[in-house]
Design brief:
Length: 535
């Protein structure tokens, strides 16, 4: 879930046109809107081909049943850290008065929340499912509401988590003992769902356990502690279900990627092998422990990313469409993930530049320390879910995930109204309402101006007969003419646009355009994003 800024920075902006009179500025705005700019996009259908994972088009469970076509779903968040699968009680931690209750499920049937998610996912045609395993040490014993500080674990209010039962499993777990077994949880899911159906997060945002769950894990999380728990829990689960994929360590953001939120043992560990950040140490240790165990204990490096970029305020906390600096920051924010040299206005841009661009840096650590590990973001958000800038930013980050090889990504909405973000997912997965989607193979799309627009292109497999292109106009007040040039041996004839623009989150089909010499021009209104289907 979203975290507060670690630092507050002064931000200074030069407001363009401040020296103009109101009438002069109005005339200039009208002229810009009327004339716009021409931006060139060059697509080469044979260059930079790489597969796009369908699982990047995912959501977290609580919006799965809304109007969205998703290909992956994740069950997670702070509530899952102290969830007891045997009786379905959980603890809210600092999110809500440290209550232990039946918020997640009133059912007393074992593993009820994971089973329900699987049933809902199958009904929605979602093939990939992740639930969260408990690793902090203790889970709720009861639903008797507030847990006092004097009842901090170990106490009667919690049961101890044990990774491996080392005894026969039961389909009906023993509710009278003081333990909850994680491998028995996986066993129950395999019996109910089948092997390799459910996949697993290694708990949730462990660097923040002392803040989110001080009744369960009051002490600061140690770097070695997290590695040892991750390896032991992963081994226990793989022994029960070798087909399951393990995603870890589900870090909340840059502060955790860097030093596990100033873990007490980090400085010594860092000096010992000169690690550049905690991510590298974690991957190195998981690779070594996997080699010793003879099985891969980490299938996917999992992190969370909530943009720290700022305009008038932090963009993930701004729902005011009139905050133009926030809107501008939002539609540029994905560049922090992939573009070398791009520096956002935030504490990250000022003090943490060694972590940028974020996805590139994560992939470098994977390649160096544990090759073959996939990359997942099981929580992310750029803000603006209820406005058009949210759709523009959401489509942008999905394009980034595709071209940088991210394996899985599940949006965590920050408000109940996130219709524009969900529409942007649909633009990739179901743009015509009949299941048509963006291609599964990335191809190169070069753009003349990244400040004003973006473009992503794809084909299906090696078939170039159809090219799908997602383009956006980032400008708040000017249209742009996007000149699309396609380098291919195929001669294209028509283009059908599907657009999301200001005023409605509905995807609207436009009039077909004609292609001449594999080139065409599409006029993009301010703050809009379009799927172009070229045949």
């Amino acid at each position: 879930m979203i975290k507060k800024n670690v630092f507050l920075l002064p931000v200074y902006f030069l407001l363009f046109g401040a020296c103009l009179t109101n009438s002069e500025k109005t005339e200039k705005d009208e002229e810009d809107t009327a004339m716009g700019d021409r931006i060139t996009v060059t697509i080469n259908t044979a260059a930079e081909r790489k597969p796009i994972s369908p699982y990047i088009y995912g959501v977290n469970e609580f919006v799965m049943n809304q109007n969205v076509t998703a290909f992956s779903v994740r069950q997670g968040g702070n509530r899952l850290t102290a969830y007891n699968w045997e009786n379905n009680y959980s603890n809210a931690g600092s999110d809500w008065q440290h209550f232990s209750d039946d918020y997640l499920s009133t059912s007393r049937s074992p593993a009820a929340i994971a089973i329900k998610m699987a049933e809902d996912a199958r009904r929605n045609g979602i093939p990939y499912m992740i639930t969260t395993l408990q690793m902090a040490g203790y889970v709720s014993a009861d639903g008797n509401r507030a847990v006092q500080e004097s009842e901090t674990a170990p106490s009667r209010r919690f049961k101890e988590v044990v990774f491996a039962k080392n005894a026969p499993f039961s389909d009906s777990p023993n509710l009278s003992d003081n333990y909850v077994f994680m491998d028995e949880y996986a066993h129950n899911l395999v019996i109910r769902l089948g092997s390799g159906v459910m996949h697993y997060n290694l708990d949730n945002e462990p660097a923040l356990w002392p803040e989110t769950h001080p009744r369960v894990h009051p002490q600061k999380t140690g770097a070695l502690e997290l590695v040892e728990k991750s390896a032991a829990l992963a081994a226990a689960i793989k022994a029960v279900d070798p087909k399951a994929e393990i995603h870890g360590p589900s870090l909340y953001g840059i502060g955790a990627y860097n030093d596990l939120q100033s873990a007490p043992d980090w400085d010594g560990i860092k000096r010992a092998k000169n690690y550049d950040w905690f991510i590298s140490y974690y991957l190195d240790e998981m690779a070594e422990r996997s080699a010793k165990a003879g099985i891969r204990l980490l299938d996917s490096l999992d992190v969370h990313f909530y943009s720290e970029a700022k305009g008038e305020c932090r963009i993930t906390e701004c729902n005011n469409a009139s905050h133009t600096r926030c809107v501008n920051a939002r539609v540029q924010a994905s560049r922090t993930l992939w573009q070398q040299g791009y520096i956002e206005e935030s504490w990250i841009g000022q003090w943490m530049r060694h972590t940028l661009p974020v996805i590139n840096k994560l992939n470098q650590s994977i390649e160096k320390y544990y090759p073959g590990t996939k990359l997942s973001l099981t929580e992310y958000n750029m803000g603006g879910g209820s406005q058009i800038s949210g759709a523009v930013a959401q489509a942008d980050i999905l394009g980034v995930f595709g071209k940088t090889g991210v394996y899985l990504a599940t949006l965590w909405p920050l408000a109940s109204n996130c219709e524009y973000q969900l529409a942007a997912i649909n633009l990739f997965t179901n743009y015509d309402g009949n299941g048509s989607s963006f291609g599964d193979t990335h191809v190169v799309a070069e753009l003349s101006d990244l400040e004003k627009a973006y473009a992503y292109a794809s084909i299906m497999g090696s078939d170039e007969s159809v090219v799908t292109i997602v383009v956006a106009n980032k400008s708040l007040d000017s249209h742009h003419d996007m000149e699309i040039n396609i380098e291919s041996t195929v001669r294209y004839k028509t283009v059908t646009p599907y657009m999301i623009s200001e005023g409605s989150h509905q995807i609207k089909k436009g009039e077909p355009l004609t292609v001449n010499g594999n080139s065409f021009v599409v006029r993009m209104p301010p703050l809009s994003v379009t799927q172009l289907v070229v045949k």
